[in-house]
Write a structure and sequence with these properties.
By secondary structure, this protein is mainly α. It has a single domain, classed as Orthogonal Bundle (Recoverin, domain 1), CATH 1.10.238.10. Helices cover 58% and strands 5% of the residues. It contains nine helices and four strands, in the order αβααβααβααβαα. The chain has a two-stranded antiparallel ribbon. The protein has a two-stranded antiparallel ribbon with strand order 3-4. Helix 5 crosses helix 6. The relative contact order is 0.14.
Length: 177
């Protein structure tokens, strides 16, 4: 006789820890688990928001890096990542070898003028596509735009996310997530 299946544990309803906040953002349909669909809908949203076509090299790159990231995170290949799986998986090394590339590809989609930096509008489009509410994008942008030039470079964007994920000081973490 099979044992009953327990519902997967979910992160806190109002997540405070960085990993819980990021996981809550990954769970785009808010059903308590981050599914493959949840993960890839973010790429689709960024593609639509930037008006890119399926054959755009940046869209192809975003899907390729997304596939590599998903395969690394969903090690048991069941199509979902529970909060516990995500929290145990993500760390500085995984960010540097997996997440950096997937997030960088999404940044590149939003960089519609190909300057290597996002202005406030591009940043907001990206953050909304990734599942962050628009109402905190301004505060996150201001926190990241340390020199006040109205642009956020790819390197500083990725460094801020890495710092937040790994528990270091992040200028945008609390404002954004």
């Amino acid at each position: 006789m099979p044992l009953p299946q327990a519902a997967p544990p979910t992160p806190p309803a109002r997540p405070i820890a960085p990993k819980a906040r990021i996981y809550a953002m990954l769970d785009t349909d808010k059903d308590g688990v981050a599914s493959r669909h949840d993960y890839f809908v973010r790429i689709e949203r960024a593609q639509r928001a930037t008006g890119r076509t399926d054959d755009d090299p940046l869209v192809i790159a975003a899907h390729a890096t997304g596939e590599r990231a998903w395969a690394a995170m969903d090690a048991n290949n069941d199509g979902v990542i529970t909060y516990e799986e995500y929290a145990a998986w993500v760390d500085a090394e995984k960010f540097d070898t997996v997440c950096r590339y997937a997030l960088g590809a999404l940044f590149d989609l939003a960089d519609t003028d190909r300057t290597g930096a996002l202005d406030r509008r591009q940043f907001t489009v990206l953050r909304q596509a990734l599942g962050n509410p628009a109402d905190n994008a301004d505060a996150a942008f201001d926190a990241l735009d340390g020199d006040g030039d109205g642009r956020i470079g790819r390197k500083e964007y990725l460094a801020a996310i890495r710092a937040y994920v790994t528990g270091d000081e992040s200028p945008m973490g609390d404002a954004l997530y």
